[in-house]
Amino acid sequence: MAHVNQMGDSPLPSVSELFSLSGKTAITTGGTGGLGLSMAVALAEAGADIVSIQIHGDPRADLLKEGVEACGRKLTVFETDVADSPKLRQCFADIWASGVVPDILLNCAGINRRAQVEDFTDEDIDAIFAINLKASFVAAQEVGKKLLELKRPGKIINIASIISFIANYNIAAYACTKGGVLQMTKAMSNEWAKHGINVNCICPGYIKTAMTKAYLENEEYKNYIIGRTPAGRWGLPEDFRGAIIFLASRASDFVCGTSLVVDGGMIAK
Q: Which superkingdom, per the lineage (predicted)?
């Protein structure tokens, strides 16, 4: 039975249509990483073709290719170093020149390095800021500019962190960048929501990925996280499949400038 739009007589889309990404194109950064791979493949499973921005010789490139193609979707790869802003901008120019028309950006490239505040080197700080914050800004900016030029709506999904809210120890540079991504999301949304461009972010908690390997190898800390998390476990990359489809689809058309926390309840405790 069709649902009627309360603001008029036109029928509302079905729930399956609401979450479908059929005919859409999603651009991803970090789409071969732990979280990024799971979310990129979820986008493909929901119907989107994937354009992956990744480093040359990415060791996990085959995993993304296999995942997307298993969903019957198309994968197109552009190689660049996202930490180099001029190269990243040129990469987007190449993407547009190839005829890609964007609908979705999954802004997932990120790194972390651990040290006490006084021990962070310029190299550490520059690398973390370049990838986690500046590259995220540039990628969102380039996709937003293209959507504005084409007068198209779109979805930009940034990846922040619960560290955007609770800073923890030995990750001061990472915390700065993830706090920045959270505020960047709000600021971009303020300017672009009126154009039908939804900018939101996902804030992961402690997830079993290569980035958290050091924590997982520390039995005491691993168990501390389990005890600190109301869900009673570490998160898994597949826990983000629903979140990314929601924010990438029509289901979130009135969701603007917000953060979706996926952490098993940790920051609520």
A: Eukaryota
